[in-house]
Amino acid sequence: MASLSLHLSSTTPFVPRATPLHLRTRTQKTFSIRSQSAPVLSQDDLKKLAADKAVESVKSGMVLGLGTGSTAAFVVDKLGQLLSTGQLSNIIGIPTSKRTQEQAASLNIPLTTLDLHPHIDLAIDGADEVDPNLDLVKGRGGALLREKMVEAASSSFIVVADDSKLVSGLGGSGLAMPVEVVQFCWKYNLVRLEGLFKELGCEAKLRLAGDGSEKPYVTDNGNYIVDLYFKNPIKDGFAAGKEISAMEGVVEHGLFLGMATSVIIAGKTGVEIMTK
């Protein structure tokens, strides 16, 4: 990866979440680390830059939520490296997918479950969209249910992403906002979900396995995913999430609202750290 000369214009200690999610203020503070040169970085370079910055918040002895996806994979790689060199010790991870579980196990990262460790010190994961309030769309990797369970149980939740994930409103990228549904009568719920957001020009599609066949994608939990594509951003994420969750047969949705305590965005000019 091209080297960066970084200048820290402002710093702040990372403070674990101390108040319930619904009581937290929504005032955003932004801190920037800007490069003095302008190296050309690939998207993977940017993801790795954000991941490395997030791992700086990890301390020995922590119980960690390990995210899923291409950016989170860089986080897991870095944790494995720091454990192998002795720079970190006594870390226990709770993976959010079978894919992450296999990656972490291959790096000799000790693993556990929410059943055994219901309190998590810190979760680090990627995001598919990040809006100005630090609300998120997640789950294009198919792990939204386990991700939400783990990250909701965490005192702090750091999101890592590149600047292509920034949107002015959730659904604004035009890419998928996933909803995990049971297999039973999935088309019934697909039609209802599309109708729920008709005024936003929503199109609902069953996610396919991606192996060239017409077989549906099946989550680690044995469910299907209905992907919602919006022509216009969602006006009220909390109201939308509540209406989606009220549908029988819906397991979970990809709106992660009021959960992130910090978002690390890597862009062409450096790293931006956004906090509430």
Description:
24% of the residues lie in helices and 26% in strands. Helix 1 packs across helix 2. The two termini are 30 Å apart. The protein is built from six helices and 15 strands. The radius of gyration is 19 Å and the shape is globular. The strands form three sheets. The chain has an eight-stranded mixed β-sheet, with helices on both faces. By secondary structure, it is α/β, with parallel strands linked by helices. A hairpin with a 5-residue loop joins strand 6 and strand 7.
Summarize the structure.
Pathway: Carbohydrate degradation; pentose phosphate pathway; D-ribose 5-phosphate from D-ribulose 5-phosphate (non-oxidative stage): step 1/1. The protein has helices spanning 43-55, 70-84, 98-106, 144-152, 186-196, 237-245, and strands spanning 6-8, 29-35, 63-66, 92-95, 120-126, 129-130, 136-137, 154-162, 177-181, 203-206, 224-229, 250-253, 255-256, 262-267, 270-275. The protein has 276 residues and is of the alpha/beta class.
